Amino acid sequence: MLVTMIIIAALLAGGAVLVSLQLASNRSTDLTRSGMSALYCAEAGLSAARPAVAQNYAQWKATLATAISSPPTATDPPTEPAWLYTAIGNHDLDGITGDDFVVYIKDNGDDGTAADDPTTDKDLQIFIVARCISARTSDTQKEVSELVLYNGAAPCMGDQIGGEDGNGNKNDGC
Question: What is the model's pTM?
Answer without folding.
Answer: 0.67
